[in-house]
Amino acid sequence: MIDLHTHSTASDGTDTPAELINKALSQGITTLALTDHDSIDGWSDAIKAHRSPLSLVLGAEVSTITTDGISVHMLGMLFDGQDLAMKKMLDETRDQRVPRMRKMVELLSADGIKVTMEDVMRAAPVGATVGRPHLADALVELGIIKSRDEAFGELLSNSSKYYVENIAPTPEDAIRTIRKAGGVAVIAHPFASRRGQILNAEIFTPLVEAGLNGIEVNHRDQDASEQQSLDSIARELDLVVTGSSDYHGTGKLNSLGENVTHPAQWERLEAMADKRRVITP
């Protein structure tokens, strides 16, 4: 099984990189990508924990914003972690997450939902990239909401009045940076209507021109018709089709390996990187 989209405590997951590796091994995952939000801080621990028979793919999920204000997540994999432009993009995108979180906390508090930035930071593991799941965890801890999923359904979705946009690169700029760093770029859950506002099909042409390699088609937040539409777009544009869990650990329904990538599609995607960077058994 090939799962190309997971998160650890280096961003907003609940499993450490080592715990994620162990869980993947126990569940029969053969190839696992670690793609924390705007961070590669979990790479070294994942490499230390890696062991046979698992193949480890290192990457990051980059937060981007279209010119008309739609949030897009871009999976960058197999890039050079020492590339200066790539590190700069990740650092700048990650740094803006704290002021963004402060604004969301202010909006919630103004409506009588009593949560503080201190509550959010207590919910985030040390060194984690602060994100909405940590705010959700704080709301759960305070007894305001029952679970992460309920928080995202009622308060923290992209369409919620409490949602605050990231300050981030455009999808095209992120793709170019990932490709120049030797990696491959796959747009994550682009038709995820269950998350709120989605992209339209016209966006893919400029993304392909920028160097997009693939589309995450099989994802739980995209229904069957959305997946079928994305599969057609991928085939029309000759893009790789991926599937993945978007696993975050405890508190979200996503399970490791619940959606996977076909080996032939993964083989094609890996060949598009400038060199082989998979950590093999």
From TrEMBL:
<dbReference type="InterPro" id="IPR004013">
    <property type="entry name" value="PHP_dom"/>
</dbReference>
<dbReference type="GO" id="GO:0004534">
    <property type="term" value="F:5'-3' RNA exonuclease activity"/>
</dbReference>
<protein>
    <submittedName>
        <fullName>Unannotated protein</fullName>
    </submittedName>
</protein>
<dbReference type="Pfam" id="PF02811">
    <property type="entry name" value="PHP"/>
</dbReference>
<dbReference type="GO" id="GO:0035312">
    <property type="term" value="F:5'-3' DNA exonuclease activity"/>
</dbReference>
<dbReference type="InterPro" id="IPR003141">
    <property type="entry name" value="Pol/His_phosphatase_N"/>
</dbReference>
<feature type="domain" description="Polymerase/histidinol phosphatase N-terminal">
    <location>
        <begin position="2"/>
        <end position="66"/>
    </location>
</feature>
<dbReference type="InterPro" id="IPR052018">
    <property type="entry name" value="PHP_domain"/>
</dbReference>
<dbReference type="InterPro" id="IPR016195">
    <property type="entry name" value="Pol/histidinol_Pase-like"/>
</dbReference>
